[in-house]
Design brief:
The chain has helices spanning about 10-25, 40-55, 60-70, 75, 80-105, 125-140. It has one domain (about 10-105): Cytochrome C biogenesis protein (Helicase, Ruva Protein, domain 3), CATH 1.10.8.640. By secondary structure, it is mostly helical. The chain starts with 8 loop residues before the first helix and ends with a helix. It contains 6 helices and no strands.
């Protein structure tokens, strides 16, 4: 049995930093996903590269700039994340408006219904006439 490896505080900090960066940065291999959530083997290798940079003493900003330089602003920059966020927000707004309009149309009675919104909205004019005749007969009694 091998004894567990004890990591130094610097190694623990490097691992935390690498994990944070991999969770925050978009993956150049899986559009719309972070490096950490990308299932690609290349993403795992990129996580290892990030850890090496962190163990070399580079800070978060330096590592992020290294990744942007390596893969380009279009794949790794914050512009890409902002575009994805904007698309999600706009899609959500469009979906909510569509649902609200459909619900409004579904609950609103059609224009041809008599007394829309009243308790007699489904009663035809012929039925109302017969009801009135019957009430008149009752009044005569």
């Amino acid at each position: 049995m091998t004894a567990p490896v004890k990591l130094s505080p610097a190694d623990l900090h490097a691992e935390d930093l690498a994990r944070d960066i991999a969770s925050d940065m978009p993956s150049p291999y899986c559009p719309g996903r972070s490096i950490a959530s990308c299932p690609s083997q290349a993403a795992r290798e990129l996580e290892d590269d990030i850890l090496v940079l962190a163990k070399q003493g580079k800070d978060k900003k330096q590592i992020e700039m290294t990744l942007v330089t390596r893969f380009g602003e279009s794949k790794m920059g914050s512009e890409h994340q902002a575009d994805i966020l904007l698309a999600i927000v706009l899609g959500t707004i469009v979906a909510l408006v569509t649902i609200l309009l459909a619900a409004r149309r579904w609950y609103r009675p059609s224009p041809g219904q008599a007394g829309s919104g009243s308790a007699l909205s489904g009663v035809s004019m012929g039925e109302l006439d017969r009801l009135e005749d019957e009430l008149d007969k009752l009044d005569e009694l």
